[in-house]
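JOB MANIFEST
job_type = single_chain_structure
chain_count = 1
residues = 284
[input]
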Amino acid sequence: MRRTKPEQFPISGRRFPIDKLDVGNRRTAISLCLLSFLLVAVLSAGCSNESSGAGGKGQAVFSQEELSTPYDHIVLQQSLTIDALPKIQRFESERGPLLGGVEVLSQEESVTASLGQSKEGRKTWFNLVAFHEYKLNVVRKYFFLVDEDAARFPAQVRRGLRFNCEMVLDEDVLAEAYPSENARRIAILRRVLENLRKDIGELGAAGSPDQDNKMLSVCGMLLNQTLEMILLKLESSPVLALKLSDAGGADFDHINFGKGKVLMVVVDDVVGLRIRFGAFAQAR
């Protein structure tokens, strides 16, 4: 698959309404919403003492483009460990290794992540890559950002959540005989969630019990709840899955971040996913 430029997806499709959740799904959704409130509160509280930056003087300002540079520059199926690791460790950044001291590195045999948080805990992000066991090329990559000040006053919606990922799909997902295209897309999104859990879990299971690994786990939990809420709506109205590849994306509501857009495209054996909620959903 050719590398797609950041924020550009080859998408098309039609619009469909979102049906109401059934009673069982409503109960599950309420539980997810309550947990989502808690996770966002933890992220907002942050670990500001550990993330004050080099020298602890002032607070550095990082743009979305700078934060997502490792994700944007690492090429799925082409970048090898020797190419990807220097990028995710920020050796090529003008800010110096690990973005001037505000990022920390978590690394296992096949998964590597850099996690960062602003001084006051208002902005939290990570770049994560997973490598093929034998070929040592990148088969999954993720970028996540939560920003409590994504839009400036007097914007009505200030906070935002952003998530991008690309991954090579397993043969069992591609070869499955699905009853419909909707069911296929839902199954693919479910596999995205499963792989995300596995990759973050690998770092958390073998990592040290310090604040940074805990924060990565919290980010993973928030993403888990976000994707679960998306899947709940898709499973209650499967036809909505068709709109995932629409140029405008599918409309969803997040209990903490408000309205958002979800786009997903599959090309050959690769899936690309883009999620925007809150202030990030208002800008391309």
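[summary]
Residues 149 and 158 are 5 Å apart (CA to CA).
The beta strands are 103-107, 111-117, 123-131, 138-147, 160-168, 250-254, 258-267, 270-278.
exit_status = 0
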